[in-house]
Amino acid sequence: xxxxxxxxxxxxxxxxxxxxxxxxxxxxxxxxxxxxxxxxxxxxxxxxxxxxxxxxxxxxxxxxxxxxxxxxxxxxxxxxxxxxxxxxxxxxxxxxxxxxxxxxxxxxxxxxxxx
Length: 115
Hints:
115 residues; mainly beta; six-stranded antiparallel barrel; 10% helix; globular
């Protein structure tokens, strides 16, 4: 491996699954302390989501969580804290039928996120 290949350009970021902008009411439970946050999903894919708690300020968080949405539960990990909310990666991808069912709950209707 040459010097320049090690320190070359960064690879561009590419999501593994297509995300959809949405507004879906949800709750997020921290597995380490049991705290539950009310909020909503702002985007969703088969592999993850962006959850925005109904809080003025976000605390830096990482770790395992349970996402409660539409009468179901999804195991996930918080992988990022941003001003937009908590970036979640699902432990097990949800299937397309469940994704479509969740997106049907969005108000306003969900739309595919621009690339």
